[in-house]
């Protein structure tokens, strides 16, 4: 068995596609009208479609999982993030763990938690 994708729920799929392209360089592989597959296995799904599948309230910013990315030049990444998305809500600004890894955590446009860290 092989994990193929990770799906996140978004309110505005076009805005999210732009966000993940602008910040992480992810490109669209398939657009299935509200279900969009990006490179690196990230799937964006329109909130209305997800809600019709599960028929339950969607809880944004639930802090139960995160998307993790690695970036060697994390300071340049943060500059880009703050320039392109100045209203970003941070969980923690740039910090250094005791083992030496630098990380920053923040929410995307829909409250999905993202961590960007330097490679270990």
Automatic annotation (TrEMBL):
Gene Ontology terms, MF aspect: dioxygenase activity
Membrane-spanning ranges: none
InterPro entries referenced in this protein's UniProt entry, alphabetically: Glyas_Bleomycin-R_OHBP_Dase, Glyoxalase-like_dom, VOC_core
Domain of life, per lineage: Bacteria
SUPFAM superfamilies for this protein: Glyoxalase/Bleomycin resistance protein/Dihydroxybiphenyl dioxygenase
Oxidoreductase among keywords: yes
Annotated keywords: Dioxygenase, Oxidoreductase
Pfam families, per the entry: Glyoxalase_2
Ranges of residues in domain VOC: 2-119
Listed name of the protein: Catechol 2,3-dioxygenase
